[in-house]
Design brief:
Elements lengths: L4 H22 L3 E8 L2 E6 L2 E6 L3 E4 L2 E8 L6 E7 L4 E7 L5 H8 L2 H21 L2 E2 L4 E6 L9 E6 L3 H13 L9 E4 L3 E6 L3 E6 L10 E7 L13 H16 L7 E5 L24
Parallel strand pairs: 1-7, 10-11, 14-15
Antiparallel strand pairs: 1-4, 2-3, 2-5, 5-6, 8-9, 9-10, 11-12, 12-13, 13-14
Amino acid sequence: MKPTKTTLILGILTITILSVVGWYFTRPQGVIEFVLAPQQLTFVINGKEREISHNEKIKLTPGTYKVAFTRDGFRTEEKSLIVEDDKQHRIVMALTPLTDAAKKVLADSSESQNVINEYKQVKSNELIKNLPLSGVNYSINACPSVKQPKTDTKAVCIVTTTTQGEKAAKDTLQQMGYTLGDLEILVGTENIRSIIRTDSYRIDYYKDVQTEGTDKLPLFITPLNLPYVPYATTFDPASEAVKTAALNDLKERGYDVNQYAIYYSNIYLSRYNTNADRPDEHAMPPTQ
């Protein structure tokens, strides 16, 4: 029987549809794995929304995408995503909670806490790759970590001698989208860097000081606004309170105080002062 015109058209359409379907399933694709906190988010890609879960994987054709991650009660995060053919891409994303309810969602999930820690490290690594940066009265460099001294981890060092330079550098980091509290930031000169500074004390690391008889990194706690506090002496209650507060501050920021040689005193001369705007702050390593 001779095929009719309708039969020929249907045959051509069938072949076309099968060809399109076959092309769709065989075209190059990349795999995206999502590591999320909180563990359920809305994923926006090129303006289209879909719900995604922690550890979920999706396929995308190679290319560059504008994407966003959002959820009620959290700050929306946007980024560019580059997908390559036949590669698996791992996207780590931790949203910032804006409400108490959102904070509770994260606090109730140990897995979310792990993701948050990994996300902070990912963001820090991204910044390190973009350094150095410089301004009129500061430079921002990558330098060895004091928090993790026996690893290859890098910290962010703001090199400046003025509070204006420090503020300008930190403003630059925030404008770039970084949360200062998520970074290990050291401030000072090339050889003397402040880890923590408050109105009551400062904690410094001296690059050129070695501790004898131990491989521990030396840290120097300098109490401020207190009278003469000799090195290696019995302290009065006020001095002890400052020292305890400083050590607790280190612990809360993730420093393992057992891996440092801790020195505590404020008797040393100003040639080691690291802040030209605060000539009353002195910190010089003790002679052993």
